Each structure stands twice: as structure tokens, then as C-alpha cells.
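User: Some background: our group keeps a shared notebook of sequences we're curious about, and every so often someone picks one and asks for a predicted structure to add to the entry. Today it's my turn. The entry only has the sequence so far, pasted here. Could you supply the structure so I can complete it?
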Amino acid sequence: MKSIVKAVAAAAVLVAPALTFAQSDSGATRAQVQQDLCQVEAAGYNPGVDDNTTYPQDAQAAEHRVWRQNGASQGDEASYGGAANGTSASGMRMMQPLQNDGTKPTYFGH
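Assistant: Of course. Here's the predicted structure to add to the notebook entry:
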């Protein structure tokens, strides 16, 4: 019985690394990333600028310009995610104002 347990443990140790390899179907290839970077640079983003205070805004503005250029030719069929048009509301329910008659709610102070 001990030899079976040892054999199962050894097999698990040998098989586990084979199952932990990275995904073979990644989202973007190196060429696609380089193409995206070239598009963003053509839209006005310069990663070599030393101004770190405007980094996120500059990069996002350039990505938005690229999105508008690509989006005009591809339309909404190329996008994904939530609904682009519509409204939503969030918040909390309206609480009744407390009367100032000296009484306190049941769970006051807890």
C-alpha cells in the first residue's frame, strides 16, 4: 500500500510541471504589440519624453485618437465589453429624515 502512495505522489510531482506551462494562445503577438506602439506614436504619443506627470493622460489621449481612427473604419462590430449607449443609475435608497423628538433608532450607537 505504501508503494502505491509513493508511486502516485511521484507521478503527481512529475506531471505537475507539465500542466503549469503558460497559455499557448496569448492575446497579442509581439508584432501586434509593436504595430500598436507605432500607431500610438503616430497619434502623437512620445514615450521618450521625461515628463512623468502627464504620462497617463498623454498615453490615453493618443490611444483614444487611434481608437477613433480605427473605430471609424471598423464600426461597433469590432468593439467588445459593456453597452456603449444607455444610461444607468447608482446610489442608495433615500433614508427618512430623523425627527428630532428625542427618540433614537433601535440600533443607535451599535
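Suggested note for the entry: The two ends are 58 Å apart (CA to CA). Residues 37 and 45 are 9 Å apart (CA to CA).
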